[in-house]
Amino acid sequence: MSPAAVKVDRLEKTLGKNRVLRGISLEASSGEIFGLLGPNGAGKTTTLRIICTLLTPDAGSVEVLGFDTRAAPEEVRRRVGVVTAEIGVYARLSARENIVYFAELSGVRDGELDRRVDAVIDRLDMGSFASQRAESLSSGQKQKVAIARAIVHDPEILMFDEPTSNLDVLASREIRDFMVESRGRGKSVIFSTHVLHDAERLCDRVTILHQGTVVASGTTAEVRGSHRDLEDAFLELVG
Amino acid sequence: MNALGIVFRKELREILRDRRTLIAIAMAALATPAVLIVISQVSAKTATQAYTVGYSGDIPTGLGILLSATSLKLEHVDDPATAAKKQVDLGLVFQATQIDEYYDPTRQSAQIADTRLQAVLGEYNAAKAAAALREKGVDPAVLTPLPLRAHPLSSVVKAAGNAFLSFFLPYILITMVFTGGLSAALDASAGERERKTLEALLLTPASRSRILVGKILAVTTISLVSAVAAITSMLLTLWQLPLIGTRVTLSPLAAAVMVWLAILLAGTFSSLTLALGTLAKNFRQGQAFSTPLYFITIFPASIILFIPDFNPSLAYYLIPILNAVLVLRDAIVQNSVAWAALGVTTASLVATGLVCWFATLRLFTRETLLIRS
Taking the model in full, what pTM does it have? Predict the structure, then answer.
């Protein structure tokens, strides 16, 4: 296994009266798809939000490519791209203007801006609707805008939080293909989902969370063990 | 370009594509002239309108001509007191030694007719008294042993125009600065949460304080544009429309003070409405939060209407918004600036804006901002 791109150590977090994370640890490496699995409420989104510095941990630590999330949050955000199920876009801007806005905020320099934006539009096959206002786009097209804005600054780490939950079959397929392609480019891909079938097909390694604790961790084959599939293994673990 | 400039440019672009904001600015520019034109037409009509006087008895010689000359139309009735309730505007019973007047003070037409009658009778009685004295060889000047000669130091008509502006301008300024940027402020705060772009925005390396300042500057700009559009159209209308017998104009000093206050108010209101929008879950809730604020902001302008000679101590200039109204009123009416008052006002509004900005930043950096969304 290559050195950890993301290293989470004994993470704890309470939101309101809810103790969401109870000392979880995990590591994700470059060039792999790492699955963060668990039922709704297990703590997956909170973990991802702490990794990308939107939330601060109560205890424990997170390092992203050597940067501590507490000490250098801006350096971390510069190196992370996040795609969530929420495909909110600025409706009165075009798809391209949406991408340009996030590229500029992510520090892509003027000289590089057009080339980067054109490249990402080309890569996600968005040419036919790039100049359309986002309010007129379909859900699948908006999801592409959401992906484009997350990757336009070419981050080393990509995090997908339930990215296919609001999408149809075709759009979901494109997302999965994109994750595989990103792994091929040497990125560290963290895929949070409760759809274990998707995880089993895509992930090199997985960690299963349940009620804020890690109940299993390892390669997909290791976690599946002697069970028919990951779902059976999961049900036995959390049953 | 740094994050502040990037956010500012993007927010302005979105605002200029937002029909709600454009309509608000257009309304701001058109509403005031429309109101002034209606006021002008109503006042012109009132000045020339004839009112009916129902009378009984014999009209004294010469008085009928005077009444007709002031558009008081005489009409003989059997019972002036009854007629004055509805049929005519005034009822008069002419007797040998006095005139009995009947009118209903709740009717505006009766009030105007009464005022005209008083003026006409005043002149008539004075002329009659003067003639009687002359007949007896007495100089009519004995009736006014201490005559008053007024020497106005400035134009009375101009002063009336300034008094009108001193109420109307602060009211328009505050209303337009507040409402002109409100939609944009809520869209840039509650709107981010409602359309689910907030998380993506906060995931960028840009610092939240710069993002916030970019938003505040964009909202401030649009508030100023709205206020300037409304005030320019108002001044152009007043210049073209001799509403109170003169063309009302704003002195360069008052205009400069107004622009300065508009900038301060716009910055303060932008921070405040962005704070409210950040507290709100969606645009509609943001509007509900902002409505009470609107009434609070226009209250100080109303004070000038009800207490035109309100001359408070310097401490009053610490009260935000009221201080801006007072400084602008003084600049218009007296065409001068009390620098101490302007300094206190500036410090007060800047401090208020900073407190609001800090509060918004605190809200903007709280984890609950994301959890609640």
Answer: 0.81
CB contacts, 8 Å: B18 with chain A:
92
> Do the chains contact at B205 and A149, CB–CB below 8 Å?
no
Point out the residues of chain B with pLDDT beneath 50.
none
The SS3 assignment for B250 reads: coil
Taking an 8 Å cut-off on Cβ atoms, the answer to whether B10 and A15 are in contact is no
3-state SS class at B363: helix
Sheet of A59-64, strands arranged across: A18-29, A4-15, A59-64, A67-68
| Contact present, A235 and A224 (Cβ < 8 Å) | no
Question: Taking Cα atoms as reference points, which of A215, A205, A213, A206 lies closest to residue A235?
Answer: A215
Measured in whole angstroms, the distance separating CA A220 from the mean position of its chain's CA atoms is: 18
Nearest CA in chain A to B188: A90
Q: How far apart are alpha carbons B80 and A137 in whole angstroms?
A: 76
d(CA B289, CA B302): 22
> What's the DSSP call for residue A205?
E
- For B195, the closest of A88, A102, A107 (CB atoms) is A88
Contact assessment for residue B3 and residue B208, using Cβ atoms and an 8 Å cutoff: no
DSSP A165-196: TT--HHHHHHHHHHHHHHHHTT-EEEEEES-H
DSSP result, B290-340: HHHHHHHHHHHHHHHHH-TT----GGGGGSTTHHHHHHHHHHHHHS---HH
Residues of chain A in contact with residue B17, where contact means CB-CB under 8 angstroms, are 92
Amino acid, single-letter form, for residue A80 = V
For residue B186 the two structure tokens come to 């809520």
Contact A104 B1 (CB under 8 A): yes
DSSP state of A133: B
Contact A87 B196 (CB under 8 A): yes
Of B254, B270, B266, which Cα lies nearest the Cα of B342?
B254
Rounded distance between C-alpha atoms, residue A64 and residue A80, angstroms: 9
Q: pLDDT (tens digit, 9 = 90+) per residue, B57-109?
A: 999 888 889 999 888 999 999 999 999 998 999 999 999 889 999 999 999 88
Reported ipTM: 0.90
| pLDDT computed for residue B238 by the predictor | 77
